[in-house]
Predict the structure.
Amino acid sequence: MIEIRNLSKSYGRLQVLSDINEVIQRGQTVVICGPSGSGKSTLLRCINGLEPFQKGEVIVDGISVGDPKTNLYKLRQKIGMVFQRFELYPHMTVLKNITLAPMKVKGVPRKQAEEKAMELLERVGIPEKAGEYPANLSGGQQQRVAIARALAMEPEYMMFDEPTSALDPEMIQEVLEVMMDLAREGMTMLVVTHEMGFAREVADEIIFMDAGRIVERGTGDEFFRNPKHDRTREFLSQILK
Amino acid sequence: MFDAVQRNLPFLMAGFLTNLELAGCALAGGIFLGILVGLGRISSKAWVYRPVTVYVNVLRNIPLILVIFWFYFVMPILVGKTLHPFVSAAVSFIVFEATYFGEIFRAGFQSISRDLVSAAYSTGLTYWQTARYILVPIAFRRMLPSMITQSIITFQDTSLAYVIGLQEMVRRTTIVDSMEVRSIELYSFVAVMFFIVCFIGSRISRHYEEKGRRANVL
């Protein structure tokens, strides 16, 4: 379970997150949407300790992320993350991208790590690309490798930071399908995305953020059918047109 | 016509070997220290960043020849005995070149996006693992051409060690010249020897530049 209580963060005078409260239960998929600069990515980065914050608490399975005594390296093993621009290691093959962390962080033997990596590549549909370098893959393929890389650590949570916004339209679906499968298999997921079809399909909760605040939250249908705030309505009308 | 060179060839070539050895030490030490300097220069910890930055700025704004002199006179005080000019020169070169390599590495490290580092962290890799498996190898590939260029400059600069009496090639040439009085042939020969090594170096640099471009890491 991830609990966020009164989380606030600022860069100097700029308030990027204000008083965020949220609880994510095991097995849930939560979609976060909102205009750019609304603090969605920063929120994700606070949860796995990539960004420090000044006020409030983030607690992952009882471990406080903001506590200076917390071993963040250990905490991050539980939380996989997928980025907008894939961020695969360009100097390593697909297989090495996936096996690096299990081998170096968990000490999994090479053979076992590679077997697991092949299994994951099978699952995201591109086992034939194991020996390729990321530069030779399409965007959609790269993003699926990035998902496999995160899953290789057997995380209990997965966070996606606009995983399809850097993709050509015809590649979005292949990535979303992998994500939907994950959600259906019961992975706990936090997804920053503007793919409202995906949100409608798998989200247990949708959060709308603006200017560092959670403006509105709702379950799929309720969120789309009658948004309570003007700001949400305006945002949805732009995105769904 | 080059008989003066021929007569003194072993003596001169032994000097050239000293240039190569000094360059070897300068590069091994300078690159190793340079990696640490580069990491220090991108550190978010002020107690790391500040002193490293002062070190880099000071050394990069004084001529190498002064650094060579300075170490030659200061090292005996520090270690309590007179040092061989080679040791003194090697220390000067390492300390001096580390700042140049450090800046090359800093640029290389900074060319790596913040999110790539975040991606490595998000899989549970530690700071040192991220540096070792991600940052340094990628930066190294991107920086290889500049590193080779800087190495060539370092090699050329080893001749400056003649000022503290190191018997490298230029020094030995002046000795031979004072006996033979055949300046043009002798110094031309030195120039040719330096040219050959440096020209090969710059070709290697270009090779890696093209290779890096093909591998999409540049």
Notes: The first strand of chain A starts at residue 2 and ends at 11. The longest helix of chain A spans residues 169-184. The CA atoms of residues 232 and 238 of chain A lie 10 Å apart. The mean pLDDT of chain A is 93.
